[in-house]
Amino acid sequence: MDISNVNDGFGRWDELLKLICEAFAYMDGVIDPPSSAHALTLENLRQKANDEVCFVACDENGTLLGCIFCKAEPATLYIGKLAVSPLAQGKGIGAALCAVAEQTAQQLGLKALRLQTRIELVGNHGTFGRWGFVKTAERSHAGYQRITYIEMQKPLF
Prior knowledge:
- By secondary structure, the chain is of the alpha+beta class.
- It has four helices and seven strands; from the N terminus they run E-H-H-E-E-E-H-E-H-E-E.
- It has helices at residues 13-24, 42-51, 93-107, 122-130; strands spanning 2-5, 53-58, 64-72, 76-84, 112-118, 134-139, 149-155.
- A seven-stranded mixed beta sheet has the order 1-2-3-4-5-7-6, sandwiched between helices.
């Protein structure tokens, strides 16, 4: 598996958008509000990658397997749109992408990784917990009275 930064001449935006949509599709009808992945277009996906740091994982044939977006904050590196192709899940790709994010955070002198995961996605909570993340907050999307997501952080030493 090869993991690379999309700022290094990446041009496969349509494939990346398809991968994200397929990876997030299982959330439809499960989470409320719906995933922000539905609002992604080729244009705003390119802009997101320009504004943040995006890494993609590919197999030996160049097939896209997953991606992660990283955004530096004052003390943490926020990771979002961590997506792994449904056909490649359970093979360590998400963990490998998080490891690259961890290296990026350390290079930037940041103290932790931070992410948000929907309250309904308890399987994701468990996976992130196994990767060293701990719940740090419960929050609500605008307009919601109930908790809709949790924040988790992985301290870096």
